[in-house]
Amino acid sequence: MKIPFLDLKAPYEELRADIDAAVQRVLSSGWYLLGAEVTAFEQEFAAYCETDHCVAVGSGLDALELTLLALDIGAGDEVIVPAHTFIATWLAVSATGARPVPVEPDEHTFTIDPARIEAAVTPRTKAIMPVDLYGHPCDLDALEAIAVRHGLHVVEDAAQAHGARYRGRRIGSRFTSAFSFYPGKNLGALGDGGAVVTRDAALAERLRLLRNYGSRVKYEHEIQATNSRLDELQAAVLRVKLAHLDEWNTRRTHVADRYLKELAGVDELVLPAVAPYADPVWHLFVIRTTRRRHFQDALAAAGIGTLIHYPGAVHRSTAYAGQTPPGASYPISERLADEVLSLPMGPHLSDDAVDTVVGALIAASRT
Ligand SMILES: *Cc1c(COP(=O)(O)O)cnc(C)c1O
């Protein structure tokens, strides 16, 4: 039995008839950008996130960058980011001309450690950009307290957390939040896509200008802006999938619960923790081990795909070489980068497949 890390074809196969019909509807409409599908998707996704406004854009990275621009963040400013994240979080800040200032994670939840944030705040700090990494919400109450104390914006990178809840409320309902619809995300398009959700009507309006040449009325340009639009085809497909997102997240939780139960006795594997305030959506199921290569090779030999999210800490990437301030070090992030291993996860992973992964991990722990 071959078990791929992620099966991207399975969601299409489950919904083939509805997705095909949605695509046909757009193809024969003759309208391909900023039309009825995008408007409907924006309303449906804002409602799903229990918030007021949604502005769909070209990617998750654009959603983050345009939100910072809409908040007038740029050169000379600093934005606090997790040291342990996908590089896009940092790149969104850098693209505005501002400086990403990393803060170490809580090693149990993998999300930014609120207790370490205030030491990183300076007079230049404008915002905190926490990440609901792997689908686990960050500690929003603690972040809000810090943001209020220092007068900072919070822009949440929710690219991995569609549908997650913090103390019962949806991610996206509290802070302005950026989502990605990259195909492998919990809500994935058939190409690139992203969105910002917010309670702030003025911010949403500014984002609508920024994504479309600074224009509300065709050929009237109010600000210098860019082109970053979700297309009608992607919006139509996302609408079909959104109706199944809760069910798919429940299936992910079922897989996670089985991994947590069956692997609890394997001493050398550190399993992901769930904070008391969190209903995670298990974008990834990430374990830790000091014998990562051994386990990854053993699983590969058994036909089981795994990945590493992420194999190098961002501050050690070539892209950010030489930009770590003197004396700063990020040992937790570096250790996580050396130890994390993502197991197969998804709504279409069968119970038999989970049994096979568990069996292979237990066998590998004895060699
Ligand atoms: C996927 C992702 C992004 C970027 O999304 P794209 O749609 O690929 O641009 C940003 N942040 C995190 C944490 C992500 O996982």
TrEMBL record:
Gene3D superfamilies the UniProt entry points to: Aspartate Aminotransferase, domain 1, Type I PLP-dependent aspartate aminotransferase-like (Major domain)
Entry's Gene Ontology molecular function annotations: pyridoxal phosphate binding; transaminase activity
SUPFAM superfamilies named in the record: PLP-dependent transferases
Keyword Transferase attributed: yes
Domain of life according to the entry: Bacteria
BP-aspect Gene Ontology terms: polysaccharide biosynthetic process
UniProt-listed InterPro entries: DegT/StrS_aminotransferase, PyrdxlP-dep_Trfase, PyrdxlP-dep_Trfase_major, PyrdxlP-dep_Trfase_small
Keywords on record: Aminotransferase, Pyridoxal phosphate, Transferase
Similarity comment: family membership: Belongs to the DegT/DnrJ/EryC1 family.
Protein name: Aminotransferase
Annotated source species: Sinosporangium siamense
Organism ancestry: Bacteria, Bacillati, Actinomycetota, Actinomycetes, Streptosporangiales
